[in-house]
Amino acid sequence: MSKRQNIRKAIAIGMFFTFPITIAWMSPAMPIIYGFHGIVTGAVMTFILLFFVALFLGRAFCGFICPGGGLSECLMRINDKKAKKKRLRVFKYILWAILVIVIIASFIRAGGVSEIDFFAGLEDGWIFLLAPYRYMIYFGVLMGALAFQLLLGKRSFCQYACWIAPFMIIGTKVSDWFNMPRLRLKANADSCVGCNQCSKKCPMCLDVKTMVEGNNMKSPECILCGECVDICPKKSIAYTFKNNTPSP
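The chain above was modelled as a monomer; its predicted structure follows.
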């Protein structure tokens, strides 16, 4: 394993240990509950921030910083098989659409925004788990992620059920639409030897070899983790920070 991957996984797993706090800023329920009181929570601000971050960094948050991604890194020790049901990826967009509609409806019902509170829902300003019933929510999320991993394969929760991912996917689409420079992958098909190590290593189960051979590394599911970059024996894949132009 490369030094970069050691550092990436250490950061991701470390972020998982912050989940008792950060769950409030990633929860789909908190914006709705507080939305009916006209309160914009930290979760709403996080969703918006990740959209803007994705304009320049794509889905790197998923690959490096997301606490859920850190949990997935741990669970891959249990089941490292590919998540093959690509058609299920649409489910996360359905969840996202429902979430956005209900959040908007909650604020309409409240008569608009009355307050902005980044720490809403965090008891004493910091800890989500101080209220006993919230342990059920917390461990329910963990058990759900475990079930996805065991039944459907590696990072299947990220691929099929993450309500946050579409905010970043839309951000990358907007970035590409306006031809903005952002962090992305580039490929050199001429140097590829077809060893398929990149596809085998991809945590999001993408057919990276085919992407390289077509000199087209664009995929809404790519989390820019760099596994394919570091495993390639011919260095046919690399990071770049450029606009949406075809690879040479």
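Residues 90-109 form the longest helix (20 residues).
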